[in-house]
Design a protein that fits this description.
Shape: globular
Strand content: 35-45%
Number of helices: 2
Helix content: 10-25%
Distance between the termini: 15 Å
Structural class: alpha+beta
Order of helices and strands: HEEEEEEEEEEEEH
Number of strands: 12
Largest sheet: 12 strands, antiparallel
Length: about 200
């Protein structure tokens, strides 16, 4: 019985993913802004956001210069323009899961709503797509994507992103069918051992 407990604890330790919240807090000074260049991507908690154009910045929740405001969001945030393609990757190059995020209209936009396309490229090939239209305020987006190598964001106008909820995956992680196979093997080995000791 002790062997079964050790096996189950080991199994659940292996399959536990590491949750990370990319929230952009405390990067800027109070009321400040940090502009990002193409050559200097933003890194937080082992993840990297890379922009293809200079119109990207980290903004404090109190920043009000030039009309920048992430409508409906009251914490620090990441903003970029329609000239950009922004890509999220793991700094280690490993795969990751993307659970959810908050996105919405940056008041600097010339329109009263935006369209955002989120594309997740899978390690196994292919991609997942979420197309969001007529977004006018901070909106929670539940994705639940797994096995990603990167996530690409494009927008029709100025957008804000916040609270990207990602999970690291590793080569040691066991899939659900694999987990059941390990449990079954453990039970067989325990049964064999008890039979042998009888």
């Amino acid at each position: 019985m002790k062997s079964l407990v050790v096996l189950l604890v080991s199994l659940f330790t292996v399959v536990t993913a590491n949750a990370t919240l990319i929230d952009f807090e405390d990067v800027t000074t109070s009321g400040g802004r940090v502009d990002l260049a193409v050559s200097t991507p933003y890194s937080e908690e082992g993840y990297v956001l890379t922009s293809t154009h200079k119109h990207a910045a980290l903004l404090d929740s109190a920043y009000i210069g030039s009309g920048f405001d992430f409508i409906g969001n009251d914490t620090d945030w990441f903003g970029f323009s329609e000239y950009n393609t922004v890509t999220l990757t793991a700094a280690s190059g490993s795969t990751f899961d993307f659970s959810d995020l908050v996105l919405g209209l940056n008041a600097y936009a010339s329109n009263s709503s935006i369209d955002v396309l989120i594309t997740g490229n899978l390690l196994s090939g292919g991609s997942l797509v979420s197309s969001l239209t007529n977004i006018s305020t901070a909106t929670f987006v539940d994705l639940g994507w797994t096995g990603l190598t990167e996530v690409v964001f494009t927008t029709s106008d100025d957008v804000g992103l916040d609270n990207l909820n990602v999970f690291a995956t590793s080569s040691a992680e066991v899939s659900a069918p694999g987990a059941f196979a390990i449990i079954a093997l453990g039970l067989v080995m325990i049964g064999f051992r008890k039979t042998r000791n009888s």
